[in-house]
Description:
With 131 residues, the chain is α+β, with helices and mostly antiparallel strands. It is built from 3 helices and 8 strands. It has helices at residues 17-27, 48-62, 111-121; strands at residues 7-10, 30-34, 63-64, 69-74, 79-84, 93-94, 97-102, 105-108. The strands form 2 sheets. A 4-stranded mixed beta sheet has the order 1-2-5-4. The chain has a 4-stranded antiparallel beta sheet with strand order 3-6-7-8. A hairpin with a 2-residue loop joins strand 7 (97-102) and strand 8.
Amino acid sequence: MKENRVLEFKECITNTFLKTVSAFANFGTGKIYFGVNDTGRDVGIENPQKACLDIENKINDSIQPKPDFSFSINERTNVICLTVLEGSYKPYFYKGKAYRRSDTASIEVDRVELSRLVLEGQNKYYEELSA
């Protein structure tokens, strides 16, 4: 298993995963595995139940609007899987910026993409706008 557009590995919990949460909520469901290093090897997270609460609080405090997400914990490896669902209330912002996935990186959207996200969140599309 290796990182791709819908899969991210985090060896530990830092705020960098929040850009990826924004990207998945804006552009397509994805998974973030905590306790997995960049090579895909399980290293585990100490006290995964507490870590899930910390992750949930970070998302709730940092992403607007709040995206839909869920957790699962592999009790054998102490690896946490955070699944972030593509949202209906786009755009989803982290620190006032919206993100998208570019292969294995989460990058800020440009102005055109942001405009499209705003319209999509309103169930509208450029093609439907009057000239």
